[in-house]
Q: What sequence folds into this?
């Protein structure tokens, strides 16, 4: 199932579009975070580090008192930011500070702490980024700047990240489905047109929306191709039908003339035998033309079908009744068996013709005292109609060509026939959208029409 989904163009397009959309939004979000949070935070750290170095230099060159005075005079920095600081002695006592609290031990060079302030009894929230380090005598100096705006923006981004991720995935999938639906709709129109053409309607064309896009150009090319195919096919059909009809007329006349010959005028038996042979060959040629035209009509979907519900058990009984006299004459036992109710929507005349051809072959190629069984019913693989015999079966070389026109296997060359019976059966099976199966049963052959 997974392999099929990955092979589906619509599924792959959906995944590709959704993945590209999510990656693009993620990239934009990362760029916004880098510009609005990372870079300002880095700038504040640079400012705090520079301030720490300056204060430490004052302490080293001018003394502790000068450092304390410098810290007192520091209030506002670049951009109006508040300056925060704390100076703690070696003994842990606070010397001077405007921070409400800070970690008791130095754990990192950089700290992000709350620096709330109170004005007229109201609390004003602040966040500060601090540089934490030791002075020459072991005292601890923390100095930094207000980063409330930057850290608040980061907090907002973190809070919105879940919604942003969910929304991005949702919009990506929705966009992918819309795009895929539009493409799939056009592809499905081409597929429907192709299936209709396969059903024999060569006049079907791929719809063109008139937008002039790639699909319209493809549809135009396919329509030109279908027009050419229809024209060539009709030309071949007209030639074939005309040739067959033109041949049938003189053949019918020839058979009529031969039938009217007075046998007493022929005299010798060899002449009479030659006349009978000529009549048989003429009738055989007439049968071949009839079968060829019938196969062409079925394959070309030009047969006027009468679709109705057909009970396969009843159909099998009709064929059994029709062929029982011939089977008895050849000393072949013919039986019919049904495995449950089996009814399909089909053309009863075509199915009767197909089943008759199969039974005729089974009797023709069977041996005296042999057996032929007609089976119908349903099994886990679908509805079926089978003919089983105990004749010579098919060789592996014959199996690939058995439905070709005028093909006759080794057993068929001495049994007569024109090599068109199974070609007609294959055309009828294709017309009914069912499978035609040949299975050697050692001895014999099982030929099955199966609807799945």
A:
């Amino acid at each position: 199932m997974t392999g099929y989904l990955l092979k589906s163009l619509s599924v792959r397009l959906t995944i590709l579009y959704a993945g590209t959309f999510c990656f693009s939004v993620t990239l934009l979000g990362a760029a916004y975070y880098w510009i609005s949070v990372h870079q300002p935070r880095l700038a504040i750290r640079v400012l705090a580090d520079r301030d720490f170095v300056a204060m430490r230099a004052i302490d080293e060159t001018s003394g502790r008192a000068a450092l304390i005075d410098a810290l007192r005079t520091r209030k506002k920095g670049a951009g109006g930011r508040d300056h925060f600081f704390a100076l703690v002695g070696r003994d842990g006592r606070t010397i001077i500070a405007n921070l409400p609290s800070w970690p008791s031990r130095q754990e990192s060079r950089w700290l992000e702490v709350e620096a709330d302030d109170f004005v007229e009894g109201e609390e004003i929230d602040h966040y500060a980024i601090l540089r934490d380090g030791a002075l020459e005598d072991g005292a601890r100096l923390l100095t930094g700047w207000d980063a409330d705006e930057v850290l608040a923006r980061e907090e907002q981004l973190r809070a919105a990240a879940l919604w942003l991720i969910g929304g991005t995935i949702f919009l990506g999938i929705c966009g992918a489905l819309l795009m895929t639906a539009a493409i799939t709709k056009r592809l499905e129109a081409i597929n429907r047109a192709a299936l209709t053409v396969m059903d024999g309607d060569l006049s079907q064309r791929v719809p063109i929306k008139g937008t002039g896009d790639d699909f319209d150009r493809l549809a135009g090319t396919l329509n030109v191709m279908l027009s050419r195919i229809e024209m060539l096919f009709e030309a071949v059909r007209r030639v074939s039908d005309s040739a067959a009809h033109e041949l049938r007329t003189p053949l019918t006349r020839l058979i009529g003339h031969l039938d009217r010959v007075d046998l007493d005028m022929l005299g010798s038996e060899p002449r009479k035998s030659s006349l009978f042979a000529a009549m048989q060959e003429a009738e055989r040629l007439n049968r071949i033309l009839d079968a060829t035209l019938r196969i062409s009509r079925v394959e070309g979907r030009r047969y006027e079908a009468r679709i109705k519900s057909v009970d396969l058990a009843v159909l099998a009984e009709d064929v059994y009744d029709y062929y029982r006299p011939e089977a008895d004459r050849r000393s072949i036992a013919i039986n019919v068996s049904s495995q449950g109710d089996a009814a399909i929507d089909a053309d009863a005349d075509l199915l009767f013709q197909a089943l008759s051809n199969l039974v005729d072959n089974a009797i023709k190629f069977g041996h005296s005292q042999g057996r032929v069984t007609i089976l119908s019913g349903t099994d886990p693989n679908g509805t079926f109609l089978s003919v089983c015999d105990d004749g010579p079966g098919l060789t592996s070389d014959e199996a690939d060509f058995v439905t070709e026109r005028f093909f006759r296997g080794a057993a068929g060359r001495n049994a007569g026939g024109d090599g068109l019976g199974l070609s007609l059966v294959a055309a009828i099976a294709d017309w009914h959208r069912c499978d035609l199966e040949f299975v050697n049963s050692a001895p014999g052959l099982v030929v099955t029409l199966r609807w799945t």
DSSP finds ten helices and 14 strands in the chain.
